[in-house]
Amino acid sequence: MAVIAGPTLGGIIASLVGTTAAFVVDAVSFLVSATLLLTVRIPFTRAKASGGRLLAEVWSGFRYVLNNGVLLGAILIIGASVLGAAALNALEPLYARQISTKGELTFGLMVTAWGGGMLGGAILLMRVGEKWGWRRLFLGGILLLGLAVERVAASSYLPIVLVFLAIGGIGNSLTAILLNTILQQSVPGHFRGRVFAFAGLTIQSMQMGAILLWGWRAQHFPLRSILAVAGLVALVAFPIGWTLWPFRDYTYASKKDLQALIDR
Questions:
Q1: How many Å separate Cα 8 from the centre of its chain?
Q2: From CA 112, how far away is CA 2, in angstroms rounded?
C-alpha cells in the first residue's frame, strides 16, 4: 500500500511546503522503519558451504538459463519490454510538469496510479491465474505495458494518463509475479539463487541502459515523441513472445513434466 499512498502524500507535501519538507518526511519514515526492524529477532542459521568456487557456480547458473528456452525466453521478453517501458522511469517527472502546472502533485498521482495497477494485477492473477493460464497472462502483461506507454504518449489529459498508467501497472505486476513464479517452480533449489541473479542482472542492466538512452534522446526530441517510440519498442516484445516463446503452462503440468523441463 505504500507505493499507492506514499507518492500522492509526497506530492501533496512537496506542492504545499516544498520538496525539502517532503524529503524530511521520507527520511523520517525510513528511520521509523529501521527502528522497527531492529526490534525483530530472526534466528541465525549458518549455511553449509558448498565447497565450489564462486565464479564457477555463477557460470553454472548462467548456463542453466541459457540451455532452457522457457526461462531464457521469459527473461528476454521482459527485458525487451523494459527497453521501452523504462522511458517512463526516465521521463515521467518531466512529463508531469509538461501536462500540469502542479508537477509535484501530478507526479505523485502518476506513481500512485501505477502502484494501484500493480495491486490490481496481483488480485487479477489470484482470481483468474489457473483459469486463464500463465502464458496468456504473462504475454497479456507485456501487451498492457506497451499499450500503456503508447497511450500515455498520446494524451496530455491527466485522468486519461492515470488510467493508462494503472493499466501499465497491471501489466508490470503480471509479468513480474509470473516470472518469479516460473523461476520458483521450474528451477531446482540449489540453482534457484543463481538463476534469480541472472534474471535480475539481465533485466536491470537492460532497464538502466534504456533509462540512459531515453533520457539522452529527450534532450533532442519532444517528450511525447520519445514516449511514443518507446511504447512501440515495448509492444514489439508481445508478438515476439507469442510466436517464439516455447512455454507450457506449469499450472497444468505434472511433476514428471516439470522434472523433464528441469533436466532438459
A1: 20
A2: 9
Calculate ∠ Cα 94-219-93, nearest 5°. 10
Tell me the whole-structure pTM to 2 decimals: 0.80
CA Rg, the chain, in Å? 21
Rounded Cα–Cα distance for residues 34 and 1 (Å): 18
Q: What does the mean pLDDT of the chain come to?
A: 82
CATH class of 55-263: mainly alpha
pLDDT of residue 259: 46
Cα-to-chain-centroid distance, residue 176: 5
Residue 7 contacts residue 109 (beta carbons within 8 Å): yes
Q: Extract the C-alpha cell encoding 183.
A: 523461476
d(CA 116, CA 129): 19
Domain with CATH 1.20.1250.20 in the chain: 55-263
